[in-house]
Amino acid sequence: KAGVTQTPRYLIKTRGQQVTLSCSPISGHRSVSWYQQTPGQGLQFLFEYFSETQRNKGNFPGRFSGRQFSNSRSEMNVSTLELGDSALYLCASSGTPDTQYFGPGTRLTVL
Amino acid sequence: DQQVKQNSPSLSVQEGRISILNCDYTNSMFDYFLWYKKYPAEGPTFLISISSIKDKNEDGRFTVFLNKSAKHLSLHIVPSQPGDSAVYFCAASAREYGNKLVFGAGTILRVKS
């Protein structure tokens, strides 16, 4: 069974631009969650999508948004990028609450 | 507030010995606890989990113990191997929040050969 895939793996943007990251979960998993990892804040929950509906949202500004498609693939978008948005963005796929599998992440650098 | 805490930033263990990684939590609503291993710039690798209705779960070299009254869990790795050197994260979820994971700050494990 293929694992969680994320594209692109690396991204460099400038302040004010927007970015879209993609995540394909494990086949059969309907839940996709997004996390941000920074050295100062650790791993922080952004939002979770289940069957195309946002089920939960973390404490991030409205510039961070996401969506999920009927095939469970998910995208997250960050608009009006700020320097502080530089981070590793991780996607997690879940079939049951006691197992969540992460993708390799997208490293976003904002200049 | 920090609901999941890993109070030891780092741990050094000799190859072949036991590694014990600790985690404390404050929210009694947590239903599941998960442990991950992580290398820099990579995604976390799922190791093992435990439901709040159990007190022990074992998978190969990894055993997780849960003490609900103390709101404490620990991950035991026996025997420790140099390849186990990484950052270990404890995470917790509550059914009412879906699959949202709350992470601890992580513990760096170094296994010396």
Fill in the keyword field for this structure.
heterodimer; A: 111 residues; 4-stranded antiparallel β-sheet; 0% helix; 58% strand; B: 113 residues; mainly beta; 5-stranded antiparallel β-sheet
Describe the 3D structure:
The complex is a heterodimer of chains A (111) and B (113). With 111 residues, chain A is mainly β. In chain A, 0% of the residues lie in helices and 58% in strands. Chain A contains no helices and 11 strands. Chain A has strands at residues 5-7, 10-13, 19-24, 31-38, 42-50, 53-57, 64-68, 74-78, 87-96, 99-102, 106-110. In chain A, the strands form 2 sheets. In chain A, strands 2, 4, 5, 6, 9, 10 and 11 form a 7-stranded mixed beta sheet that branches. Chain A has a 4-stranded antiparallel beta sheet with strand order 1-3-8-7, with no helix packed on it. Chain A is globular. Chain A starts with a strand and ends with a strand. The relative contact order of chain A is 0.33. The model of chain A has no long low-confidence stretch (mean pLDDT 95). In chain B, the strands form 2 sheets. In chain B, strands 2, 4, 5, 9, 10 and 11 form a 6-stranded mixed beta sheet that branches. Chain A binds chain B through residues 4, 6, 31, 33, 35, 42-45, 48, 50, 55-56, 58, 88, 90, 92, 94, 97-105, 107, and chain B through 31-32, 34, 36, 41-46, 49-51, 89, 91, 93, 95, 97-106.
Query: What sequence of helices (H) and strands (E) makes up the elements of chain B?
Result: EEEEEEEEEEE
Percent strand of chain B equals: over 45%
Quaternary organization: heterodimer
| Strand proportion of chain A | over 45%
What radius of gyration of chain B results from the CA coordinates?
13 Å
Please give the number of β-strands of chain B.
11
Q: Which spans of chain A of ≥5 residues are poorly predicted at pLDDT below 50?
A: none
Mean pLDDT of chain A: 95
Rg of chain A, nearest Å? 13 Å
Q: Which two protein chains have the largest interface (Cβ within 8 Å of the partner's Cβ), and how many residues from each?
A: A-B, 28 and 27 residues
Calculate the terminal CA-CA distance of chain B, rounded to whole Å: 38 Å
Shape descriptor of chain A reads globular
Number of helices of chain B: 0
Largest sheet of chain A: 7 strands, mixed
First-to-last CA distance of chain A: 37 Å
Q: In which range does the helix fraction of chain A lie?
A: under 10%
| H/E element order of chain A | EEEEEEEEEEE
